[in-house]
Amino acid sequence: MGGFVIGAGELVGGLVARGVVDVIGVPCSYLTPLINRVASGSAARYLPVTHEGEAVAIAAGCWLAGATACVIGQNSGLGNMVNPLTSLTDPSRIPVPLIVSRRGEPGFPDEPQHELMGAITPELLALMRVGHAVIPADAAGLDACLDRGWAEMDREQRPFAFVLRHGVLAAEGLDEPPFAGSPMSTVTDARKDRDAPTRMAALECLVGSLDDAAAVVSTTGKTSRELYTIADRPQHFYLVGAMGSASAVGLGVARHTHRPVVVIDGDGAALMRLGTLATVGAHAGPNLVHVLLDNRVHDSTGGQQSLAAQVDFPALAHACGYARVHDCADLDEFAEALQLAQAGYGPTFIYLMIRPGSIPELGRPTVRPPEVARRFKAFVTGPNHVS
Ligand SMILES: Cc1ncc(C[n+]2csc(CCOP(=O)(O)OP(=O)(O)O)c2C)c(N)n1
Questions:
Q1: pTM of the prediction?
Q2: What is the pLDDT of residues 54-70, one digit of tens each?
Q3: Of 113, 186, 268, 277, which is least surrounded by CB within 10 A?
């Protein structure tokens, strides 16, 4: 995109100078330098959360207590913010600064899942009566931009969005202290000490363990990209956007086919829609297999810690009513659990800890989402269909 870049330290300094004490949100690769700066220790604290709407609500609570929190999120997460922005901060006139990345900005090639939100980001903000300004790529302009936003928040008593374009922030390293988690967490020590395989190895094992009749729904980010790299087949539905919705999509599919339906989820994505565990537990039939590959980080956006280190996912799945739960210690147990699960008797939850990281030069699905959806549908409803 060219032009100057600003340091994340300058942006954080500008926020802190205006009273921001907490930076709350969910990662986006455009925001990585900013998150890395605050997560590595700055005058403002970084509060990783599970959902961008949750971030807005927490920031509203901070304001109610007299503190200023800045929400950060991808513009796809603006979708998650719509409810608290329209039904909480607007009626209560609570000003909250937002830093929203603009994936899919028209004129700059990006992935298909960012196209619509990229195009409508300014209009959507305006529709929600949230003023916005584009963060300029120079330090002097940055100060004026922040001043403008703060003046508007003072005047309107509504949130204001600072829109972050691609390449505006200079790269910044991550030196995040390990997340201790809650002292009440029931995550077992045995699980923490596991020698975890890579996601690539787990997905290769999964593909090798699946019946040819199984349909697969894979979560947003590198999971879908790695699955596509290992094997691109009609029975794969790559959920490239709508982070957190893989198990809900899988539930819908599984209700109308007797094929095994295997959902591959990530910890960050599962946490974003944790309520879906209860929905799946309540409504899924025996053919739903929910696999959770837990690397405890948002690997796809730079490896920032998710809140998974303190969450006992197998215990949660039990508590939400999954019929079978496998807490796999290694790939052998993982393969065995997958084979058992495809025989039915679910809904089944299969948990495997994996190691952060991926392969260099990881590809992205080149098949367009409408084609992925239609060939998946043809597969699910096709000749092997048993109903
Ligand atoms: C609503 C929304 N917020 C943020 C993102 C950006 N994003 C894409 S993948 C990802 C991380 C997913 O983490 P996890 O499910 O743990 O999988 P991992 O990347 O570790 O494989 C994020 C934050 C997004 N796509 N949608």
A1: 0.95
A2: 999 999 999 999 999 99
A3: 186
